[in-house]
Amino acid sequence: MAVACGGSSGGSSPAPAATAATSAATEKAHEAALKKGIISIQKGIESWAVDHSGHFPKPSQVSQSGLAKYVATWPANPYTNQPMTSGAGPGDFKYAVSTNGSGYELIGYGSSGKVLITAVH
């Protein structure tokens, strides 16, 4: 990594380009982890439906405890390192199921709460 000399104190700090590159790499890693986590939750939702006559779980059931039988290791929010939860912040997800339980939408939120991935059935 490139290093630029600081002011008269003799310290050093990363060059602006290096800092930007590190920040971009970190964000890419967060996004990749989020996508992987959403896919894990999606697989759990789909497995749940197989065991429930093709009906998808209610939103209150799409959680670490609600899908424990179907998601062996609940994904971590890459921005907080805590378990992913329902919400609209970075690393959160939103799940909605159709009125008759035959379809759903699962959304994963990246930095600044932007939609990063959507799974629909």
Summarize this structure as a short list of keywords or feature phrases.
single chain; 121 residues; alpha+beta; three-stranded antiparallel beta sheet; two-stranded antiparallel sheet; 1 helix; 5 strands; elongated
Q: In one word, what is the shape?
A: elongated
Into which percentage range does the β-strand content fall? 15-25%
Q: Describe the biggest sheet? A: 3 strands, antiparallel
The share of residues in helices is: 25-40%
- Which blocks of ≥5 consecutive residues have pLDDT under 50? 1-10
Give the C-alpha Rg: 19 Å
Distance between the termini: 44 Å
* Total number of helices: 1
Structural class from helices and strands?
alpha+beta
Instruction: Tell me the series of helices and strands, N- to C-terminal.
Output: EEHEEE
Mean pLDDT score = 87
Strand order of the largest sheet: 3-4-5
Query: How many structural units, i.e. domains?
Result: 1
User: What's the β-strand tally?
Assistant: 5
Give structural notes.
By secondary structure, this protein is of the alpha+beta class. The chain contains one helix and five strands. It has one domain. The N terminus is likely disordered.
Write a concise synopsis of the structure shown.
With 121 residues, the protein is of the alpha+beta class. It is 30% helix and 19% strand. It has a three-stranded antiparallel β-sheet with strand order 3-4-5, with helices on one face. It has a two-stranded antiparallel ribbon with strand order 1-2.
